[in-house]
Specification:
18% strand, 6-stranded mixed β-sheet, Cytochrome Bc1 Complex, Chain A, domain 1, 5-stranded mixed β-sheet
Amino acid sequence: MNSFPPNRASTIATSLRCELPNGVVALVQRNAIAPTVSVYGEIRVGAANEPPEKNGLSAFTSAALIRGAGHRTFQEIVAITEAVGASVNAGGGMHSTGFAGRSLSEDVALILEILSDMVRAPAFPDEEIEQLRGQFLMALREDEQDTSVRASRALRSIMFPPAHPYSRLSRGTIETISTLTRDDLIQFHRLYHPAATTIAVVGDIDPAAVIALIERFFGDWQVPGTPPQVTLPDPLPMPDQRRIHIALDGKSQTDIIWAVHGLDRRSPDYYAASVANMILGQIGIGGRLGERVREKQGLAYYCGSSLDADLGAGPWTAMAGVNPAHVERAIDAIVHEIRQFAAEGPTEQELADARDFMTGRLAIGLETNDSIASTLLGIERYQLGLDYIERYPTIIYSIDRDQVVEVTRRYLDTDDYVIATAGPPEPSVS
């Protein structure tokens, strides 16, 4: 069995974890390889907390945090950080708002101060909001012509009811972003809460001193009430092989997404499903799907699978980009390979390769301050425990063939599923 170098896993296990009286959780690890520091933070408020008619509000609000905060303008924030070779940013996801900074170790106090201002006291200047809106709308207009985005948007709309946040993409639409107001941003920002906030700091720093800085800049942050909670509605039942096509003139490729309902990150089936997904459509050039649909049959430009497992159960998908003339053959081939995988399971070599790859990838991912900080946030988000990295190889190598077969048969139903395609108009049937 492969395992991580003892010093790396054990170092993460001994990271300093401190919960401030207001609920902010700080995770700090010293990594003296380079004289730099990475600050990663998240507030567990995201697109899942926004009303459907204001789709994109979370992403827009988080992008606006840097556009003036505390006593500094956007231009001053950029100038101050660039002068010391540092950077700060923020962004919104489905279940959280992320913020981050990077700097030399001696500038960690400056970075934490600016990030605190961004999170706690954004100014949301009208002029900056309009400039940001223009950037969002430009990107969304590009999305309108992106076959992959359009297929994904259509797929979610038929897998989840309109009230479910997974029924839409978190970046919003042209219609919703166009109507957001400064008051909308201010109201959404009021959902940010210290007891829903985690900050991870990794670098050549003194952990105790960094905890003191986090207490200094975030310790007096007070918000009335408790953090907002999200209850996800039930997804829609899987129809009997329902299909939807988004016709886009002028396209030479069709994107295909086949999907069933998956599972959430905390499910007991998560690790077996992750191994199954790795073998089916991830490892190498796209797992079995890539090897057999793309390489052997030549039916796709790319082909693979994806397991969207977060605080809620997202889709488990297989996807491909194909010549429009090959759509039906490619769909048949994808369904055949999924059905065959459920019937026969992985080979011993496939299972061994997947285990080695998954443990090796995580080990490689712990080489930088950024990746270590991101890992610490994930450990806290899913309550995995700081010894998770030490336990991970044992978890993955305990997954056997029978577990992979069982989880595949349980979730990857080849009778009831949805397919979304986006590309040139389909030929009319006479």
